[in-house]
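User:
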Amino acid sequence: MYKIFIASFRFIAFTLLISSCSSKVDLKNVNLENWKKDRDGCIGLRTQELESFRVVKNDLLGKDNQSIIKTFGRPDKVELTDRSQSFFIYFIDPAPSCENFDSAAEQPMKVMLRMNAYSRVSEVVISRLDP
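Assistant: Predicted structure:
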């Protein structure tokens, strides 16, 4: 009887933990609808949100990958690295896949979220460099 109680308690605790971890992140002053509409940065709406994003970017540290996807939408690009880490990349400037991409210009500006092995954000970088 005791083993059944412990197993049931663990299952319920685990279920509550998983369901509570994946909520949308509240980012003040960032228009997330514009962010989601501007896939690959082709329209230029994300450029308008860049300064607001810089203010709240550290609020993303420790958030899980499902929360990030619920907040910003599917990443424009995902890069897998060693040690089970990955980068979620959201383009601010038009990406190479956009019709208005200028190949003669420098690399496009992008937001890179480093996800650690536990699928939590460990670093947020705004840069033109690749990870």
